[in-house]
Amino acid sequence: MFLYARVKGYQVWAGRYGRLEWDFLLQKVPMEYAYVQVAESILGSREAEDREYHVLEVVPDNYSKYVVTLDLLLQHRNGIKHVNLADFLGSGRLF
Questions:
Q1: Are the C-beta atoms of residues 24 and 13 closer than 8 Å to each other?
Q2: Where are the domains of the chain?
Q3: What is the DSSP letter of 80?
Q4: Contact indicator for 68, 26 with CB cutoff of 8 Å
Q5: Which CATH architecture has domain 2-91?
Q6: What digits encode the pLDDT tens for the residues 64-92?
Q7: Could you tell me whether strands 81-84 and 64-69 are parallel, antiparallel, or unpaired per DSSP bridges?
Q8: What's 42's DSSP letter?
């Protein structure tokens, strides 16, 4: 995801909110951000799902938030988009 975001013109940082960390904070234009969590899968356990979503749920702003996995069955939670890595990269979508 890091290289994909950089190729698409995003600035990329690791992020932190208190003691919680998310994988990437992306910025394409001033004041337009997206938060990204990346995991192989979140379908195997409720603990894995909660771990990936929780850090994004507590961020107190309304920028776009994504959980990127290899899962084919996608679920959305509290406005956070769950996307399949291959589909996302193959479509050329932006965050």
A1: yes
A2: 2-91
A3: B
A4: no
A5: 3-Layer(aba) Sandwich (3.40)
A6: 999 999 999 998 899 999 999 999 999 98
A7: parallel
A8: S
